[in-house]
Write a sequence for this structure.
């Protein structure tokens, strides 16, 4: 990926929030880049921050990265909602409207491609946003570009 990075523009990584893994460690980039950490590395959870970064610095490229054995592949929207309902039964109406962008099964390629496609069609960026997607494999320590 490093060879394709735009010069003199901001590159942002959307990544997972698991503190055991740091994208800064496995991406061997010569410059410092912002990393937006959200559950599952899902793009929808990062949109507000991306828009602020684009407004302030002009985004050159966004890299969406999910990883194998992600916690979001082991839980569903319903499991999360049920946990919230147990804690906050008086907020049932609000909780019923929530969506946590689950990653069903281990189909990380599909979730990465979905996030890349979703970001590319957002109307809030001046031009079509340049987005690349990848999957980090915990076992090999390597990233596979999928989109």
């Amino acid at each position: 990926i490093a060879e394709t990075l735009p010069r003199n523009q901001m590159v942002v990584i959307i990544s997972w929030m698991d503190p055991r893994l740091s994208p800064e460690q496995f991406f061997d980039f010569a410059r410092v880049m912002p990393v937006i950490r959200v559950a599952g590395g899902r793009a929808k959870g990062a949109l507000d921050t991306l828009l602020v970064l684009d407004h302030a610095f002009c985004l050159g490229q966004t890299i969406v990265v999910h990883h194998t054995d992600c916690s979001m592949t082991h839980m569903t929207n319903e499991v999360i909602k049920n946990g919230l309902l147990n804690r906050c039964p008086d907020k049932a109406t609000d909780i019923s409207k929530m969506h946590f962008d689950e990653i069903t099964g281990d189909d990380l390629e599909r979730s990465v491609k979905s996030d890349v496609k979703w970001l590319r069609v957002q109307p809030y960026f001046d031009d079509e946003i340049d987005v690349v997607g990848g999957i980090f494999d915990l076992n090999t320590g390597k990233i596979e570009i999928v989109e």
Remarks:
- The first helix runs from residue 23 to 26.
- The radius of gyration is 16 Å.
- The chain has one domain: 2-74+104-145.
- The chain is about 30% helix and 20% strand.
